[in-house]
Amino acid sequence: MCGIVGYIGNEPSAPILLDGLRRLEYRGYDSAGLAVHSPGGVQVVRAVGKLRNLERALEERPLHGTVGIGHTRWATHGRPSEVNAHPHVAGPVAVVHNGIIENHVALRNELRAAGCEILSDTDTELVAHLVRREVDGGANLETAVRKTLSRLHGAYAIAVLSTLEPQRIVVAKNSSPLVLGIGEGATYCASDVPALLPYTRDMLFLEDGEMAVLEGSGATVTTVEGAPVKRAIQRIDWSPAMAEKAGYKHFMLKEIFEQPRALEDTFRGRLDRQAGDINGAEIGLTDADAADIKRVVLLACGTSHHAAMAGRYWLESLARIPTVVELASEFRGRDAVVGAGDLIIAVSQSGETLDTLVAAKEAKQKGAKVLAIANVIGSAIPRMSDATFYTHAGPEIGVASTKCFSAQLANLVMFAIWLGRRRDALSPERTRELVEALARLPQQMADTLNGTRQLVANLARRYVDARDVLFLGRGLSFPIALEGALKLKEISYVHAEGYAAGEMKHGPIALIDARVPVLVLVPRDDNYERSLSNLQEAKAREAMVIAIANEGDVDARDASDDLIEVAAVDPALTPFLTVLPLQLYSYYVADFKGTDVDQPRNLAKTVTVE
Ligand code: M6R
Fold it and tell me: Which ligand 1 atom sits nearest the alpha carbon of residue 402?
């Protein structure tokens, strides 16, 4: 996830572009850059790291001109570095891009074969070269971009400048967001509304498959094929302050609601619905590697460990491969028995967690192969791993991990399906069924979030003063119960326990009384009947029981005090839905208590200490 911005008008463009990027920095902050039409042609300044580094670079090399584009990057192709930072330039053309071009390998080969000198590892630079080729062939900028778009597969919001047409910015959108701002003698573009709010509230939202030519006097919108588009300008009522978090009170709430988008981005290019299979190109393992694995060892901490626990379930049930899951902090230094034939999967949002890094290094030294599942491109764990399967959740700012957890689940289940198919543990029919079920998830997650939000907020208000809260689940729901408890602990400071529902009777049931809310996960899966019995056991001890079950589950409704209904999915995929109300529950309890939701006490987003 990156942020793009553009300005064409009569004011100096650099300060306006920088201000827009500041408001988009939540979308990524690996590097940033501006390209501005200057008297000598398009000039570019880029810097690695946060925006302040770009500001410093601009103090040394100021950009003068009233037309420009800017970018703040969340690296997807290529490490964070100046050469990979946007804007990317080819001849007279400069491009900024948010998205992922799926056919980048084929395009790179084609451009190289045609003699293009490609400097970066990014997919975006390829777009700049494609536009340049058209411009060199005599096309105007609009036509050059149009022709280029016909060559791209994937997601993009782009803004393009050409030295040859200094009074124009050409933009286009497919899957990635892009909004145009219409001001007095100035026209803007940005990845989202907040970037433009200080300048105009008159916005024009581009749809997928549309492009626009921006001039100081306004924007001309067409389809990519060239048909004119009439789009009404919308007046936005948001205040700039609200929009800092895109209208959400906290980053955590925003990130909870971003999960459908995070999954779409993580699935993109990997769910091959035509083939009814997982496209494993990015996993970095060959079919022969898949056949050679004797055992999988999942290493992770905190929320990532809970995702890894679900991963074990999938690897055993879908790929039929022996799997263990370990807390990285307990694995390291233990001289664990691990070596050749073992595939270590190190799961980490940040890719920097010290315990996971050290544990994975120890296993690698003993001859195991390491596959990282990480969200931050080029971070330490991917760097030391043999291969990395990235999640594409975008930057997660709230300390409590939410969207990255879902994206980790997505990569783990995709990996298990890929491996299961390669090892003949999964039939082609079941593989296709799972791929289709995964493709439906983003919409089902959005429906579940919107459908449960108010009820969950009401329950959180009712139980805000509870001193202890229990979360119960079996099978795939057990890690989700642990995750629900961890979320509540870390942001609301309420004592919470996640328990395997079947273990209750072996001790913890003694904790239950009429003051303890118990959230029980009872989705329709192989454990349904047993989980319902555990729910009834808690109810019989006078607990206040909240069931999280599939829509229309009459038995769960009758047996509980309150029922939170989630969309019905393939029984193998229930965690994607059941975790959502638990995240919302912890968020609202914390918010009602008035804690610092995004930066809870004593915690850090990335734990790089012993
Ligand atoms: O970056 P990582 O995924 O390796 O981080 C692991 C844990 O520190 C992290 O999941 C932590 O538990 C979160 N704050 C949970 O919300």
Answer: 16
- 236 with 260, same domain? no
Structure-token match 């990027």, residue found: 21
Catalytic positions, please? 2, 605
List residues near ligand 1 (CB under 6 A). 301-304, 348-350, 353, 356, 399-401, 490, 603, 606-607
508 has a pLDDT exceeding 80: yes
Q: Which of 189, 191, 192, 180 is nearest to 232 (CA)?
A: 180
Out of 204, 222, 242, pick the residue that ends a domain: 242
Q: Which of 358-362, 377-381, 385-389, 448-452 shows the lowest per-residue confidence on average (mean pLDDT)?
A: 377-381
Mean of pLDDT values over 176-187 = 93
Q: What is the rounded CA–CA span in Å between residue 364 and residue 360?
A: 6
CATH number of the domain residue 497 falls in: 3.40.50.10490
Q: What share of the chain is helix, strand, coil (3-state, %, to 5)?
A: 40, 25, 35
Residue 412 has pLDDT above 70, yes or no: yes
513 Cα to the center of ligand 1, angstroms: 32
Phi, psi of 55 (to 5 degrees): -60, -45
Segments forming the whole domain that contains residue 264? 247-426
pTM: 0.79
Instruction: Return the closest-CA partner of residue 151 out of 200, 112, 196, 102.
Output: 102
